[in-house]
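To assess whether the prediction recovers the assembly geometry, we first specified each molecular entity separately, as shown.
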Amino acid sequence: MSPSTTPRTPTAPPVDRTAGGAARRRRRGPRTWLAVLPLLAFTGLCFGLPLGAIAFGAVTRSDPASGATALTGEHLARSLQGPYLDSLIGSVQLSALTALIGGVLGVVIAQAVVTSGSAGLRGATLTASGVLANFGGVPLAFAFIATAGISGVVTRLADLGGLGWNLYSFTGLTVVYLYFLTPLMVLVIAPALDGLRPQWREAAQNSGATAGQFWRHVGLPVLAPSLLGGFVLLFGTAFAAHATAAALVGGSVPLVTLKIADALSGNVLTGQENVALALGLDMILIAGLVMAVYLPLQRRSARWLR
Amino acid sequence: MAAMTPTAPHAPAGVPGADTARPAPRPEPRRAGPPRPRIWRGAVLALAGAYFLVPLVASFVFTVHVPGRGISFEAYTGLLAADGFTRSLLLSLGLAAATIALSLLLAVPALIAVRIGSPRLRPVVEVVCMLPLVVPPIALVTGITTVLRWGPDHLSRTPLYQTFLAVQDERFPVVLVLAYTVLALPFVHRSLDAGLRAVDVPTLVEAARSCGAGWPHVVLRVLLPNLRASLAGAAFLTLALVLGEFTIASLLGFRPFAVWIVSISGAQARMSVAVSILSLLITWLLLLALSRAGAAPASTATAATTSRKES
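The predicted structure of the complete assembly is given in tokenized form:
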């Protein structure tokens, strides 16, 4: 490192104050990567270390008596069987369904707001979306219990109970999850919809394209990476959501987050904690797979939407 | 699609001579378009508004209307006296302030650096900041509990053990700040990256540097004012995240705001819903204030850049 920097340091300061060309060289001079180091160190310590602990704990078993640690696939195997497997499947189903519905609704709402051309409406919607997208968790669960729970206001007014409505079910969770997933999609997709220049639509119209043709050949291809990216973000958010479900359904819907919380906090069977770690690893792998689809797509969308 | 056909007659009607004589009709077909989308747009917005407003209104009704006894505001008036309310709220606010400070201190220099000097590190920073999205909080907390257990298990004789204890201090659990900062990084990165993208950072830096500004000056007086809106956005998202976070805090056994709400929900259902509404209102007001503060300079800045581009 020192051989490359030493020749530069003596020359840079004097030249720097005189010419613009030197300023450009100076721009490379300061070791800017140093500013990235704290971030990398922090994430390595506070994110990498727990991740390592998950991976390590999921594939090893330590004997409490002797303290010896041995590799084992037992925890991972147990995490993919019986009720644990059901909870994983339940989580994936719920996340995929809510991400799909929320994504479509979000695009429709965002398009309505963006094309309205009203700055006030746009600002209000994005502000509201910013709040609502973060209105997951416990307060949301309680708001819905007060609204559509067993003795909720809407339940009593509209006699939802008689219609077979049950908030504490898969359907109920879907409706609740959409409350924060849809605004999230609005937030994500609105800038992309802004990036669809009106000139493109005019150009398509002038060359005789119908609205359908415009969307099929111009709009959707340009938006596709952002749409998929939004879907992935929604999927990940729904997949990771725990507080809402914990406060709402308890154990009646099989979800992997609830199973992990049970294993971590409740009944302390030996090895149970390692199954929690294995389940955590399963979750990370699933979410990681989806992310591996997302990252290349996002790089592609950046080309159009600047 | 039928609405598109009226535009077709216009185009052939434009006989060369007529076209040059009357340039005015050109905007007409576009103006004829909107009425149909306007209905569609109104319906979409009305439905969305209903879906997002009904639970809020219904929750409010739930808190003030006791069936058979009429209207009462007890759920709200009793709040301040409620056991643990002030303590848990102050704890959450303190955690939020620390998380905002830490995440901005980490992310701002890193993002500026990859903009001006280390573009090759950019994908690294992006992946590092986005990875927490892949790891659900509940998975992260399993890892954190495992790591924290190493303290008593393996490190009880080393000075590090004291660090482990201090980090888990009941009064101000630093471990939560660290975990929340990890969770906040994706949002902070997204917000700052968008802000930096809107500013021509290398040019600004070069201009400031060739005017003789030092690096602290460049960052504090030139770049950060341009990023005010996205800094405010990042801070707000982090604040909302910390105020509402339940999973990590409850599984690690701490009692900030969200955990407190759940703990009172069994005995005082009305109050827990009332607090939920209040927390939403408070975050809403905060966001409005922040977006107002950030938007004013930002809009003038964008106006300035667009006008510069036009000229």
